[in-house]
Amino acid sequence: MDLGLRDKVAVITGGSIGIGRAVAHGLAAEGAHVVIAARQVERAEEAAAEVATRHDTRTLAVGVDVATAKGCEQLIAETTKAFGGADILINNAGTGSNETIREAADDKWQYYWDLHVMAAVRLGRGFAPSMIERGGGVILHNASICATQPLWYEPIYNTTKAALVMFSKNLANELIPHNVRVNAINLGLTLTPDWVKTATQLTEGTDRTWKDYIQGIADEWAPIKRFASPEEVADFFVFLCSSRASYSVGTTYYVDGGMTKCVV
Ligand code: NDP
């Protein structure tokens, strides 16, 4: 199936590892050029080099903090300089939290708001003109099933991801007259290196392995009883970016192995 992605320019925030890196590979495998943005520039460069070598495509690594206005401006400027603009934007950079509402201070709320919501606002606003100029585009927001089914230990994550989903719907309404399709994806358990690191730390010095811990979480939370691999969720992102998903607009898709407990 031709996905119509050859020579498209895709910007992926948080593309240096985990889900974002798998999406970068998935898009590049279809012939897209990719811009990988992350704070640790060496890791972004290493990912960009791997993608370029494996798929014979052009890549660019940009070391920026997308939770800041300056970082977003730099990402837009460097992408424009290298590629003249973008056709695809994947707002993926994000991270979990751990707090109670009674204890968390304003600055923690502000940081997650800036990372999960303002990055999408600033980058959507910044890249939309070039997408429109190029005849259309795609913006995807990597939210989480926590946007609708909160995990008890991360109220700030849950709240800011819910806001991201609502932002995605509003942006979709505003941009579809210009042939820019905007959607959100709510993932469930996805086995990224970060999960492995956490599981390793939590099982150190016990008689359980990190794999036992991961399996325990999957058994408890996901009817499918396993984590997704980054590659299998990346396939869903790639499809939504493609011209084969041309009627998909303003929706939130759940890719969660059945973890969402109600009908959404
Ligand atoms: P990882 O922790 O594996 O990777 C996060 C990526 O984002 C890294 O490239 C990191 O690079 C980058 N990043 C983080 N903060 C910033 C920042 N301020 N500016 C620029 N880049 C940043 O995450 P995952 O792959 O697990 O998750 C990706 C997205 O998917 C997140 O939004 C997450 O909420 C969502 N998700 C993940 C699930 C899972 O089970 N893994 C489930 C549901 C949703 P660097 O540190 O160098 O900046």
Note the topology:
Elements: E1 9-13, H1 18-29, E2 33-38, H2 41-55, E3 59-63, H3 69-83, E4 88-91, H4 106-133, E5 137-142, H5 155-175, E6 180-187, H6 193-203, H7 210-221, H8 230-241, E7 252-255
Parallel strand pairs: 1-2, 1-4, 2-3, 4-5, 5-6, 6-7
This protein binds NADPH dihydro-nicotinamide-adenine-dinucleotide phosphate (NDP).
CATH C-level name of the largest domain = Alpha Beta
CATH topology of the largest domain: Rossmann fold
Count every beta strand, where a strand is a DSSP E run of 2 or more residues. Answer: 7
The parts where pLDDT drops under 50 for at least 5 residues are none
Tell me the span between the first and last alpha carbons. Answer: 30 Å
What gross morphology would you assign? globular
Write up what this structure looks like:
- This protein is of the alpha/beta class.
- The chain folds into 2 domains: 9-190 and 230-255, NAD(P)-binding Rossmann-like Domain (Rossmann fold, 3-Layer(aba) Sandwich); 191-227, no CATH class.
- The chain has 8 helices and 7 strands.
- It has helices at residues 18-29, 41-55, 69-83, 106-133, 155-175, 193-203, 210-221, 230-241; strands spanning 9-13, 33-38, 59-63, 88-91, 137-142, 180-187, 252-255.
- It has a 7-stranded parallel β-sheet with strand order 3-2-1-4-5-6-7, with helices on both faces.
- β2, α2 (41-55) and β3 form a beta-alpha-beta unit.
- α1 crosses α8 (230-241) and α3 (69-83) packs parallel to α4.
- Bound molecules: NADPH dihydro-nicotinamide-adenine-dinucleotide phosphate.
- The site of NADPH dihydro-nicotinamide-adenine-dinucleotide phosphate (NDP) has 28 residues, from α1, β2 and α6.
